[in-house]
Design goal:
- The complex is a heterodimer of chains A (196) and B (243).
- By secondary structure, chain A is mostly helical.
- Chain A has two domains: 88 residues, Rna Polymerase Sigma Factor, Chain: A (Orthogonal Bundle); 95 residues, Arc Repressor Mutant, subunit A (Orthogonal Bundle).
- In chain A, helix 1 packs across helix 2, helix 3 packs across helix 4 and helix 4 crosses helix 8.
- Chain B folds into four domains: 51 residues; 27 residues; 60 residues; 68 residues, no CATH class.
- Chain B has eight helices and three strands, in the order H-H-H-H-H-H-H-E-E-H-E.
- Chain B has a two-stranded parallel sheet with strand order 1-2.
- The longest helix of chain B is centred in the middle third of the chain and has 41 residues.
- Chain B starts with a helix and ends with a strand.
- Classes of the chains: A mainly alpha (196), B mainly alpha (243).
- Strand 1 of chain A pairs antiparallel with strand 1 of chain B.
- The complex binds zinc ion.
- The site of zinc ion has 6 residues of chain B, from helix 1 and helix 3.
- The site of zinc ion (ZN) has 6 residues of chain B, from helix 1 and helix 3.
């Protein structure tokens, strides 16, 4: 959304214009919800967080600082705090045990992690493998791939530097590629689907 | 550019985070080096698969809750604003109470003037008119004085209105509370017809296979009855390759 259009919508929503508010809401809600859901993996909690994020916006839209950047990044940051709080409360470690400490170069000198994935079918396993990443790696990957944000905005949302964002992305993608490789398939397979 | 340098910057290149001049160099290396080229393509397929798989849609019940919150927030805000206006503004923007006091004074003074007129019978008509005018002028200045002294009174009124704002969150609390939805666990097996050429079910969160009346237990799965699937509850499908 263009900056001026967005600012205009925010001002109108702040004055109680329902149409303006619904335009903002519908353009952002799935992105916010998707981010929360992929971080927590529970629909109910992800929706609760999304609701809280928008109520926060409703109650504070008059104080919104337009210099702060776009609204989506701002609300993503609000959502992120709620997500991490939830994860911490439920006892999830935010950093992974081994990968965060491993040196960047070890990966760079490494083989070719992504070549295996070329033209192969593995999307069904992505959700599962994403869950294996540490929350701090998963969030940068989601903000990059799902929300399509530039490094700088990701750094702002996750309250870190661009360098750290790059490092986490680098590790997250390699971990994911490594996890996915065993599931790489080239032909169509029949699936039995259990819903449980 | 050497392969090792390209590999280090492959992701930044793929994420469009590389300066223009370096971009050209990397692009030309990728076009000429098969090894780096296929690595780059692999990275792109990972990215593409994530973009296809990860997006999710929130349920419509969320919309209702958020809009309810929006409406109640604004209903309260409007109520406060109109109440303030009604309290503060009488006619011509003069505070109500001051205005009423001014009217009372005017009535008193005109009565006084009438008495004066009765006492000085035989006075010239002009004199009386002058006195009348004076009394009106006096009245005016008095009434304006009255407005000034009465300011504290209208300020107190405003304060009273402000305390009403504090009551608002109590009402909202009640509306926002989210009802706990009981989750229902369903087990269902759906078979895919071997002879029928159909696309694999999309197992991304978007179209989670879920309980739906259009497919009965043990029924064959086709693309048509997959299309209308609506997620009913949170379901994490387990996928296993058929033997
Ligand atoms: Zn090369």
């Amino acid at each position: 959304m263009k900056r001026e259009i967005e600012q205009n919508l925010i001002k109108r929503a702040c004055n109680g214009d329902k149409e303006a508010f619904s335009e903002i809401y519908f353009s952002l809600k799935d992105s916010i919800f998707g981010f929360a859901f992929r971080m927590i993996n529970k629909r109910g909690i992800a929706e609760e967080i999304t609701q809280e994020v928008f109520i926060f916006f409703i109650e504070n839209s008059d104080k919104y600082d337009f210099e702060k950047g776009n609204l989506f990044s701002f609300l993503c940051g609000v959502a992120r705090n709620k997500i991490l709080n939830h994860l911490k409360k439920s006892g999830t470690r935010l950093e992974s045990n081994n990968f965060e400490s491993e040196r960047f170069e070890n990966f760079a000198n490494n083989h070719s992690p992504f070549r295996n994935l070329l033209n192969k079918e593995f999307s069904a396993k992505i959700e599962e493998c994403m869950a294996e990443l540490s929350p701090l790696q998963r969030e940068v990957l989601l903000l990059r791939e799902l929300e399509d944000l530039p490094y700088e905005e990701i750094a702002e949302i996750t309250e870190t530097s661009v360098g750290v964002v790059k490092g986490r992305l680098f590790r997250a993608r390699r971990t994911l590629a490594k996890e996915l490789t065993p599931y790489v398939k080239s032909e169509e397979v029949l699936y039995e689907v259990h819903t449980s | 550019m050497k392969c090792i340098q390209v590999r280090e910057k492959l992701e930044a290149f793929s994420d469009d985070e590389i300066g223009f001049s370096e971009r050209e160099n990397i692009a030309s290396h990728l076009a000429n080096c098969e090894s780096c080229g296929s690595e780059f393509e692999g990275l792109k397929s990972l990215s593409k698969a994530m973009k296809n798989t990860l997006p999710m849609s929130a349920s419509a019940s969320l919309d209702a809750k958020v809009f309810e919150a929006f409406e109640s927030h604004n209903a309260v805000a409007t109520a406060v604003v109109t109440e303030e206006k009604q309290e503060k503004i009488g006619w011509f923007g003069i505070p109500k109470l001051a205005f009423a006091a001014a009217l009372l004074l005017l009535a008193m003074f005109s009565g006084f003037a009438f008495q004066l007129g009765r006492m000085s019978v035989g006075n010239v008509q002009e004199n009386l008119a002058e006195k009348d005018r004076k009394s009106v002028e006096e009245n005016k200045s008095k009434s304006s004085e009255f407005v000034v002294t009465n300011k504290t009174d209208s300020e107190e009124k405003e304060k009273k209105v402000e305390t009403k704002i504090v009551e608002v969150p109590v009402i909202k609390e009640r509306i926002i509370k989210i009802p706990v939805v009981q989750e229902k666990i369903v087990t269902r097996t759906i078979y895919v017809d071997r002879n029928q050429k159909v696309n694999k079910p999309n197992l991304s969160g978007k179209d989670n296979l879920a309980l739906n009346n259009s497919v009965k237990d043990g029924e064959f799965l086709t693309q048509t009855n997959l299309k209308d699937f609506q997620p009913v509850t949170e379901i994490k499908p387990k996928i296993s390759k058929e033997k």
